[in-house]
Design goal:
Layout lengths: L1 H12 L3 H9 L3 H13 L3 H14 L3 H11 L4 H8 L12 H12 L4 H8 L1 H4 L2 H5 L1 H16 L12 H11 L43 H19 L9 E5 L6 H33 L7 H12 L23 E5 L14 E5 H8 L10 H10 L2 H21 L3 H26 L13 H17 L6 E5 H10 L15 H11 L3 H18 L15 H7 L19 E3 L1 E2 L2 E2 L9 E3 L14 E5 L2 E9 L14 H14 L1 H4 L8 E3 L4 E2 L2 E5 L7 E5 L11 E4 L4 E10 L5 E9 H8 L22 E6 L3 E4 L5 H4 L3 H5 L2 E7 L5 E5 L6 H8 L14 E4 L6 E3 L4 E3 L5 E3 L6
Parallel strand pairs: 1-4
Antiparallel strand pairs: 2-3, 5-8, 6-7, 9-10, 10-13, 11-12, 14-15, 16-17, 16-18, 19-20, 19-23, 20-21, 21-22, 24-25
Helix pairs in contact: 2-3, 5-6, 7-8, 8-11, 13-20, 14-15, 14-19, 18-19, 21-22
Length: about 900
């Protein structure tokens, strides 16, 4: 129990204490520290635990912590020094140490976590005389735990909840239910208080920031939600009594699926314990050394078994000592590289030879490797395809079984088994298909699905600050009603090429109520009878007669408000901590540290060299042979090296010649000098950035810098004025991310450079506007005045967003409703249309400065969060 006590506390706090103590005291650290501590202090185990945690958190000086460890734990100087070096991460605990201590008491007794949380503060909720009666207190604890275990929400009682049932229990047993507010609640720890009205009496949502949310995407979504909801509240469009419906992910689990997931996870835990024992015994038998496997090594063992002890990329046999222990030859690699959108799930991982992963595969897909055919032959030999086929047949059998089941328990058992098998099938199919993909499909990663689930969960809790009636809707339910109401063809895939589909979903969700759910159940039954030929095709009544037409017409008047925050000017500022404790100044206020922070990538990662050839400076890059493509051979700089490489290719072929494990290209065989890397020209690199000076300066000026390619541009500055003939002329200046970061950093000299860009150009033209990625613009064809007379439908055709800025001054714009990815758009429209046309607006524009006939957000108009355009009052006549 004490090992569990420490481990559970460390898990809740997110602290690496267990590993640190094990490193100090050895594998049996808990027995060692317990005996030492109890011998010297004469305290019980709970006091030991609290004292150790208190010391680690409270002593901000390593000397004091070291002295305490020597005195209280009776450690040697070396052990005390290691103990004092334990570092605890800050701001990751969702529970206080006091709450953890109360919860652990019940966890140690075998209660589930949610039960333990409810019971943890029972002492504060019960009268003193009742809590002091041990038998009665124990009876109450068991009753509440049973109530929580058997709890199933009554769908016909919207007030039914675990809290209400515990309150009823208190009332039935003569206890004061008003004291239940003192109980902890698993879902309300570190959550939001009720909103309070402002001075004008209007309720407004407060900050969504809470220590329990560590997902940056979810936090950003909640802040945007606050902006929208507060705007609607201020404008009086909604109030506390407004019904709020939140669409949850399609994967919202029912009871049968939850049980299947529980079974799946339980079996994985049993397997992990078995694998850990196997690693311990097999590693000792192979090396003669004992080892306690880490979680990563257990995962490696699982992958090792899945691959039948063979590397799928090189075909090399893998021994257990090759991936367990220090400096392993094989490590975990991502089949679809994370840098290209691959996820970190287990199905995207394999055990791969380190050298091949680092030198050959790198950021490539398996299908892009020269030995892909051999890789697929090995994958086939692993039997993954046979497992998929077997699982598919088993799933079909469970589907037939569930349909023919006579009683509910038998039907539920078949459904649970189907879900369990489907999870296995999804795993093996995902693992197999990743080796066959020629490209990563748009939206393939499951990370967004995880983000959506987190956002929905916390949005519901957050909106409860204001609204009393909040309901959730499954994504699958929304899809079913879209089809029944004619918003989507029955078997057509949901159209995601246009952001309007979010609006259509929102309208659909708003129209789904209790009446619609009841009619839906009848519709499904009627549709089943229609399938059997027992009745006519059923029809589902729409919310109003012209519902479908009205919703589809919304696209003609929908202005999509894009939010692209500019964080470049923000600088880090954090409280100064020493061993976890905030340092205070003489006035007792926290001391803050100021930093210089770049909020984006400033340049690409590759360093380029410079050479002079025929009087021209050209830029080169060094590559290993395994990284070369056939088109790179002619770009090799050294003539002699290029000839040797060509000879090798002519002799054994490109694939074999570029594989150093199969073939060696010799520069000088007699002296044993092989060719491993070559320098090649990079014609696309014309004007790189001189990032910094080399450590060892060359005698040649052009070789003294590290050269890199610009990663992106921060903004395009537009100047506009009249030439001598009275014609409107525009010029531009481009500011790269690197230049912007140097300007905005806190240590920059503001007196030497008060503005990011000059207020006038060399011609004396004044600054007109600054375009950044995400800036919205309204195009006109002749004069700006035509925009002020446009209807909403006409404005919809003229609204675009800045997406990219090129060195020659061309700017790329995207239609505000466009939702397709850049790869698809490029294949259809190339770089973009070079001229705006109001009668036939292109999804993608690429315009030069002379064609910037447009009004700019922030200068000429504002686009509100509710999708309204508000022109500035100083508009021209």
């Amino acid at each position: 129990p004490y090992r569990f006590n420490f481990a559970r506390t460390a898990t809740v706090l997110g602290c690496p204490v267990t590993a640190s103590l094990q490193a100090i005291f050895g594998d049996d650290w808990i027995t060692e520290i317990r005996s030492l501590y109890l011998l010297g202090a004469g305290k019980n185990e709970d006091q030991m635990l609290n004292d150790v945690w208190h010391a680690l958190f409270s002593f901000n000086d390593e000397g004091r912590l070291r002295s305490w460890a020597c005195e209280k734990l009776q450690l040697t100087d070396e052990q005390a020094k290691a103990f004092a070096a334990i570092k605890l991460p800050q701001d990751y605990a969702a529970l206080s140490l006091n709450a953890i201590g109360k919860i652990l008491v019940y966890l140690r007794c075998g209660y589930r976590y949610d039960e333990a949380v409810f019971l943890a503060n029972l002492r504060a909720a019960l009268p003193k005389e009742v809590y002091a009666d041990e038998s009665r207190r124990h009876e109450i604890e068991q009753d509440i735990a049973s109530l929580l275990l058997d709890y199933k929400r009554n769908p016909y009682n919207k007030f039914d909840s675990k809290e209400h049932r515990i309150a009823d229990y208190f009332s039935d047993h003569g206890l004061d239910a008003s004291r239940l507010i003192r109980l902890y609640h698993p879902s309300k720890i570190e959550t939001y208080p009720d909103a309070q009205p402002k001075a004008n009496g209007i309720l407004q949502l407060g900050s969504p920031r809470t220590a329990t949310i560590r997902n940056p995407m979810a936090m950003r979504a909640l802040f945007r939600l606050r902006n929208l909801i507060n705007t609607l509240l201020r404008e009086g469009r909604i109030d506390r009594d407004t019904k709020i419906r939140i669409e949850f992910a399609r994967g919202l689990n029912d009871a049968n699926r939850r049980k299947a997931i529980e079974q799946y996870q339980r079996e994985r835990e049993v397997e992990n314990r078995k694998y850990a024992e196997e690693i311990h015994s097999q590693y000792a038998a192979e090396t003669g050394r004992e080892i306690k496997p880490s979680d990563d090594e257990v995962l490696k063992y699982r992958l090792w078994e899945e691959q039948q002890h063979v590397c799928p990329y090189t075909g090399r046999q893998i021994r257990i000592s090759d991936f367990v222990g220090s400096a392993p030859d094989f490590d975990i690699e991502h089949t679809l590289p994370q840098a290209r959108g691959g996820d970190d799930s287990q199905m995207n991982k394999t055990l791969c030879e380190n050298r091949f992963n680092r030198e050959t595969k790198r950021a490539k897909l398996p299908a892009e490797l020269s030995n892909h055919v051999e890789i697929m032959e090995r994958i086939e030999s692993f039997g993954w395809r046979e497992k998929m086929e077997s699982l598919q047949k088993q799933i079909e059998a469970q589907v037939r079984r569930s349909k023919s089941a006579a009683i509910k328990s038998e039907k539920d058992d078949a459904i649970q088994r189907r879900h369990y098998l489907q999870m296995q099938l999804d795993y093996w199919r995902g693992k197999y298909e990743r080796f066959t993909m020629a490209e990563i499909p748009e939206g393939f990663s499951n990370r967004q699905g995880v983000d959506i689930g987190i956002i929905g969960k916390y949005a519901r809790l957050y909106l409860k600050m204001v609204f009393d009636r909040i309901y959730t809707v499954k994504g699958s339910t929304t899809a079913a009603f879209r089809k029944m109401w004619g918003l989507q063809e029955e078997y057509a895939r949901k159209e995601r090429t246009n952001h309007v589909h979010h609006c259509i979903d929102a309208i659909t969700i708003a129209c789904i109520g209790r009446r619609e759910y009841d009619r839906w159940a009848q519709y499904v039954a009627d549709e089943e009878r229609y399938g059997y030929g027992e009745s006519g095709k059923p029809r589902f009544e729409k919310p109003w007669p012209t519902f479908t037409e009205d919703v589809k017409a919304a696209a003609d008047e929908l202005l999509v408000a894009h939010h692209t925050p500019d964080n470049m000017a923000k600088q880090t500022r954090r409280k100064l901590r020493v061993r976890g404790r905030i340092k205070l100044n003489a006035d007792g206020e926290p001391i803050y540290q100021q930093g210089d922070t770049a909020r984006c990538r400033l340049h690409q990662d590759t360093f380029y060299g410079a050479i002079k050839q025929d009087g021209e400076i050209r830029y080169v890059i060094r590559k290993s042979l395994a990284q070369l493509q056939p088109t790179d051979i002619d770009k090799i700089i050294d003539d002699a090296v290029r000839d040797r490489v060509r000879e090798a290719i002519d002799e054994v072929g490109f694939k074999t010649a570029m594989n150093p494990d199969e073939y060696t290209i010799w520069m000088n065989r007699e002296k044993g000098i092989p060719i491993r890397k070559v320098r090649i020209f990079t014609p696309s690199v014309k004007h790189p950035i001189a990032l910094k000076k080399q450590r060892d300066l060359s005698a040649k000026e052009y070789k003294r810098d590290y050269h890199v390619v610009n990663e992106g541009n921060y903004c395009t500055v537009i100047y506009e004025g009249q030439d001598k003939k009275g014609k409107t002329k525009r010029t531009f200046e481009l500011v790269s991310n690197l230049e912007a970061a140097q300007y905005f950093k806190a240590s920059a000299d503001r007196e030497a450079r008060p503005d990011l860009v000059p207020q006038t150009d060399t011609n004396g033209f004044p600054l007109k506007c600054i375009l950044k990625t995400g800036t919205m613009v309204l195009f006109y064809e002749n004069t700006p005045a035509e925009l002020y007379e446009c209807t909403r439908k006409e404005l919809v055709k003229r609204l675009y967003k800045v997406t990219a800025m090129a060195a020659e001054g061309r700017v790329q714009f995207l239609f505000h409703q466009e939702a397709r990815d850049q790869k698809t758009l490029t294949s259809l429209y190339g770089a973009g249309t070079s001229q705006f046309c109001q009668s036939n607006p292109s999804p993608k524009l690429r315009l030069s400065v002379s064609n910037f006939n447009m009004l700019v957000e922030g200068y000429d108009f504002e686009l509100t969060v509710t999708g309204e355009i508000k022109f500035k009052d100083d508009r021209p006549c």
